[in-house]
Amino acid sequence: MSALDVGDIVIVHCREPKEKLWGLLQRLDGVGVALRGLDLGAVEDWLRQEAAGAERLLTPSTFFLPMHRVQRIDLDEPVGLAPAFAERYREANGVDVSEALGTRTASGRVSS
Predict the structure, then answer these.
(1) How far apart are CA 37 and CA 78, in angstroms?
(2) What is the pLDDT of residue 34?
(3) Count of the separate structural domains present in the chain
């Protein structure tokens, strides 16, 4: 298994409070995790919204999670016959999901 790298699409499992976040890994170190994405429970709705070209009611956010909250980090990978969320996004929209999640500019602002 390879190590996680900045730019990977991941699912972060958190504790206290328990939540799961999905998105683009922007930073991973001993202090914590920076992620640009969505709550895992909103990803399906976001994928449908993006595929339909609908009004953007759901948009990705940038999260910082201190390491004491991080329980586990998984790569967004296919499971059995179910494709990864990133693969589903590419199939529906024809572009890589990292473009939709945006990237940080030198000033620290998010651009898409």
Answers:
(1) 18
(2) 97
(3) 1
